[in-house]
Amino acid sequence: LKQIKIGIFGLGTVGGGVVEQLRENRELLKARTGTDLVILKAVVANPSKPRPFDLGPIEVSGDPNFILDDPEIDVVIELMGGVTLAKEILLRSFVSGKTVITANKALLAECAEEVFEAAYEHHALLGFEAAVAGAIPVIRVIKEGLAGDRITEVSGIINGTANYILTSMSKKGEDFQKALGKAQEKGYAEADPTFDVEGVDTAHKLLVLMCIAFGGIFDFKELYTEGITKIEPVDIEIAAGFGYVIKLLGKAKEVGGKVEGRVHPTLVPEDQMLASVDGAFNAVKLSGNFSGPIVSYGRGAGARPTASAVVADLVSLVRQRESETSPVPPLSLMSEKLKHRKLMPMAEVLSEYYLRFSVEDKVGVLAELTRVLGSHNISIASMIQRSRSEEGGPVFVVFFTHEALERDVVEALKTLDQLPFIAQPTRMIRVDPS
Ligand code: HSE
Known about the structure:
The chain is α/β, with parallel strands linked by helices. The protein has 15 helices and 17 strands. L-homoserine (HSE) binds at residues 134, 159-161, 188-190, 196, 201, 300-301.
């Protein structure tokens, strides 16, 4: 049986999972690829660090050239994370004709143009299923399952850590820091967990999906990104009282040729599928113009689920490599001339809103709030006032709005937050009833 020689960058959580999966499923993978997939070399930041798994025949080095300069290596798996070195690894591997698999969503999103143009230029076999939503084969669904559809919407819960935290806060009443600590212990969080909680990791993944779904390169800096650090238990509680669950959603849709994309906490009606996605699970909703909506659900983080996506790419690309048939281009487009696509400015986005005002409880306050909202074309769908906890202290007044323009809401809140009866800055969370 022909041996496929693999060099792996990174032996952390996901790298360890890949080593184990290739070992545990070795016979199955031989049957499925007609080859023997063997990791021969690993490059890691700290080569002498003990690993919680048996390295077997893997030789370990701290020098990237140990793999990149070895003409015998057929496949490079990049699971190191970070942007600078990872980019060099990908670009050099394309040039030398190595098949490349990466889970690096930060790199693919922040350097989309450079990486994908190089991949096309060198006709690279590039797999990045593991970069988005762990075990869920969402990239494959867009590129192959929906290959005949115009994609109209991509949305979902695509960060396990943030979803784990929101679930723990709402179901167990746990505080934010404690829930984050647990997600880190379980190996879900990024090396820098601010990426998880500030929405950056969700934005990275959404941007990768957008490039495929909407055919072109988007600028990561244009993607509106807001995390979950300002969500307070009181918002979760009030939202629940109105039949909503707060989720960190990434959402992009194409409307009349314009693409809208955004990442922010969102009130999702509790009877929607996305509302019941809990813990480190992810779910992605795709809509095609013929398929209608498709929701894929599964484990979005962790060693084994993410390894599963890496090894699926490995099988698929080795099959292509060996047979040279049915290539599936990186972004599903045949053309090497990748189009730059502009995102709709956030100010032009239409949404419904949850607005929680913290105000003094006195005559005329409600009238003033509704007057300012009305003067910005913001129509109120429902409202509630939460009674005072301490005599004379501020009260919460919560409005749910009908659909309004983001620009109008931002302007209205700017005005309102300066009024003397406002006790704390207003909490605004977007509502997605669809
Ligand atoms: N930190 C990521 C998450 C890991 O929590 O979803 C998977 O990309």
